[in-house]
Structures are given as C-alpha cells and as structure tokens.
C-alpha cells in the first residue's frame, strides 16, 4: 500500500507490531475521552482560503529559541521508542534531522543523552521528569553539555493515570529500554516494568516535589531556556510567565494523564491571547494533518509537536518512516499556507481560521 497520509501510516504500523505494544502507544487514560476529543475538536475548526495572491515561493522555516527548523512541526518527547524499534530514540532523532526539524528526547529514553546527540542533525530538547533534586541536576547538566537547546519540564504527571488496555493486556515495560539517561548512575533509574508507574518508587525522603516557587532553583542549574509542558489553563500559563519560564507546550499529554478535560486545541487560543509575547507557545495533542498544525499556528502557537505519529513512522520504517511521517505533514501544511494566501509563517493570522462559537472563551 502506498502511504499518502498519516492514517495510512497508522494502519501500516498497526499491522507490523504486536497488539499489546500497539495498545500501549495508542492507549490513553481511563475512558480515553480526552484523547478522542483531541482529534475530534480539530474537525470543528475550518479554514478561510484567500486567492489571487502570489504564493509561488513559500518559506516554512521558523526558529525555536533561536534554533532554525525548516517547518514548524516537531517530534514530542515520548518514552517507549526502543521497545518499539531497536533504533528507538536514535531513529527518531535521525528522522527529525533528515526532515529538518527538532526532536525532544524524553527522560525515559532507551539511549543515553549523548548517544542521541551524536546522531542528531537537527536541534534537540531534553524532556525532564523531576522527582529528586540530585537526579534533575545530573540530567540537566548532561543535557547542557551534550548540546541540547532547551529543558522541557513535563508537569502534568503528579501521579499517573491507568491505561486500562495495558492493565488488561498485562503489558510489561522493559526497564532496560527506558533507562538510557541513567547509564552512568544506574541507581538513579526508576523505570520499572510496572504497568502503572508512580512516584511510589521513591521513599518520602528521596522524593522532592517541584512547585512554582522552586522553578528558580531549576533555572539556576542551567542557562538553557526552560519550557513547561502540559499546560491546560490560562492560570497556569500566566504562572509560567510569572515564574520565569521561557516557553510552554499547551498539551494534555495526548489524553494519557487526566481524562475528561477539554481537548488541547480548545485551550490554545485563550492561552495564547492571555500570554501574548511573554512566552514562546508550542502545542501538541491530536495533530494528524498538516491542516491541524496550520490551524494551531493560526490560533497563536509558534510550532507544534506530534507524539503517536512518530511511533507509527518508526514502526513502519525506522528513521526513514519518521522522516516520511514528517514530510507528509510538512507538505500538507505547505498547501494550507498557499491556499490561505500566505508565503511565510509570520503572515498567518487568526482570520484564516473559524473558531466555533460554542467553544469555551474563558478558561480559568
Ligand atoms: C507512548 C507514549 C509515551 C509518552 N511518553 C511521554 C514522556 O515520557 N514524557 C512526556 O512529556 N510526554 C510523553 N508522551 C506525551 C507526548 O509527549 C505528547 O504530549 C502526546 O503524545 C501528544 O499527543 P498525540 O500523540 O496525539 O500527538 C507520551 C506519549 C505516548 C503516546
């Protein structure tokens, strides 16, 4: 079958991998309502094309904290890639680089921070799960010296939500494929094969929660930009600016944490309106078409990330499959730009998208 869309890639990937691994990737929290809503709500949005504008030459490039990427679609941090494919995070970084974009390496990587940096030809972020100050300091220092361009702190997991498919399948993670970040300090590794991981692996003496007031401490560890991932409300977005973050990712973790929230795209415009130019605002959860990415940019995002589609590409054909997935989205995005009468990203305006009147305008 020729792969012409991400839906084709998803189908091809599903046919290649064991069903419990498929469920692990596709699964979401509880009833998976938020995951479903993430994709459905994009269908509520519509574009307004404009014609008779010379759009013969288009430039999709942008910068992410000063680092250039060829188009504004990047790969979200997501653990488990090495369980899916022997090249795992290496393939994701290679695929992103080959396509001209950024890869965000998760804490739960099968390869080390340095191994991934060695193969990457595009910019990298390091995604951080904080649990303990000493471990965080170790990870942030390594990411900085390996050349990563930002620290992306994921905050939407004060606990984890059961993925009921994993429970039913008795799906087991292979810890050795998730602990690459801790190669030199195995005692710091916390990924286990348990189905619903939690911070219960830490004794109360070891676990040190992070709060708004302690972001100063995190920032004091490095001069890299700090991005906070998992923001769903205007309140939290404004607090990110107040407490000195440089950027945010408006994200609901692809519906994998708390269920029954708004879709991520419904929250985007109120957030970008509230924070203005104070933060670089990125977006993820539910992007499956270049038009989704285009509409997220019209609603004020500087760039977007995809999570599950990178797994589909990798299952299909390793790094080449990741590149294929990104190239499809890039080409679709480019067509939206042209149809709406724009030559570059700075021309994209809110008027190119219709927001349904029934969408919430005030998100606390
Ligand atoms: C299998 C899987 C593992 C993930 N692991 C992480 C992770 O370790 N850290 C993190 O910040 N987000 C993680 N995510 C969430 C992604 O970064 C991203 O927010 C989400 O996948 C976006 O939604 P989408 O899959 O609809 O594109 C994971 C997502 C999936 C599907």
Task: Characterize the structure shown.
The chain is α/β, with parallel strands linked by helices. The chain contains 13 helices and 12 strands. It has helices at residues 6-16, 19-26, 33-40, 81-84, 88-99, 113-119, 133-145, 164-169, 215-220, 234-242, 264-275, 290-298, 308-339, and strands spanning 46-47, 62-64, 67-69, 73-75, 103-105, 124-128, 150-154, 226-231, 247-250, 280-283, 303-306, 353-354. The strands form 3 sheets. The chain has an 8-stranded parallel beta sheet. Strands 1-12 form a two-stranded antiparallel ribbon. 50% of the residues are buried. It binds flavin mononucleotide. The site of flavin mononucleotide (FMN) has 23 residues, from loops.
Helix content: 25-40%
State the name of the first-level CATH class.
Answer: Alpha Beta
- The secondary-structure element order is HHHEEEEHHEHEHEHHEHEHEHEHE
User: What ligands are attached or bound here?
Assistant: flavin mononucleotide
CATH topology: TIM Barrel
Q: Tell me the number of strands.
A: 12
Q: What proportion of the residues form beta strands (DSSP E)?
A: 5-15%
Residue windows where pLDDT falls under 50 for at least 5 positions: none
Question: In this structure, how is the largest beta sheet organized?
Answer: 8 strands, parallel
Tally the structural domains: 1
Rounded mean pLDDT is 95
Question: CATH superfamily membership, which one?
Answer: Aldolase class I
- The coarse overall form would be globular
* Radius of gyration based on Cα positions: 19 Å
